[in-house]
Amino acid sequence: MHALRSWMFGDAIAMLDRAEQMQRRFFEVGASSGGSNAGWEAPVDILLSDDSLLLIVALPGVLPERIVVEIEGSLVRVRGDRTLPAFPKQSHLLRLEIPHGVFERGVVLPAGKFSLSSQEARDGCLYLLFQRIDVQR
């Protein structure tokens, strides 16, 4: 019985370690690949239905006019930059966890043909709604 508890405790610790790693990756600094000058990569959520796809890109503090969306075939690329807020002269930086600077995120859409039908920046996220254009009815 003791061995079973030790094994379960070990698995629980490993799961907590993986969760902590995922949390640290939420905004991965320097994660962008492909030779770009991006300093961070924004996390995304993708929701797919029979006739549409919603891509949500987390971009807290990024002004909508600083966001560029490019679509090349099935690749959607979101890029831009987030500037640091102005600080009083006598302030000292204690922690810097929210990424700033140039970002880029590329997402490959699932199989099928999609057309961007709306784009909205709200609540610190960019919402890209795509309609499936190859739906058989």
Can you write the helix and strand succession as a string?
HEEEEEEEEE
Cα shape: flat
Mean pLDDT: 83
Distance between the termini: 58 Å
| Uncertain parts | 26-35
Radius of gyration from the alpha-carbon trace, in angstroms? 20 Å
Beta strand %: 35-45%
Helical fraction equals 10-25%
Largest sheet: 4 strands, antiparallel
Total DSSP helices: 1
Tally of DSSP β-strands = 9
Biggest sheet strand order reads 3-4-9-8
Class from secondary-structure proportions = alpha+beta
Q: Could you characterize the architecture of this molecule?
A:
- The protein has 137 residues and is α+β, with helices and mostly antiparallel strands.
- Helices cover 17% and strands 40% of the residues.
- It contains one helix and nine strands; from the N terminus they run αβββββββββ.
- It has one helix at 2-24, and strands at residues 28-29, 40-41, 44-48, 52-58, 67-72, 75-82, 101-108, 114-122, 125-132.
- Strands 3-4-9-8 form a four-stranded antiparallel sheet, with no helix packed on it. Strands 5-6-7 form a three-stranded antiparallel sheet, with no helix packed on it. A two-stranded antiparallel ribbon has the order 1-2.
- Mean pLDDT is 83; it is low at 26-35.
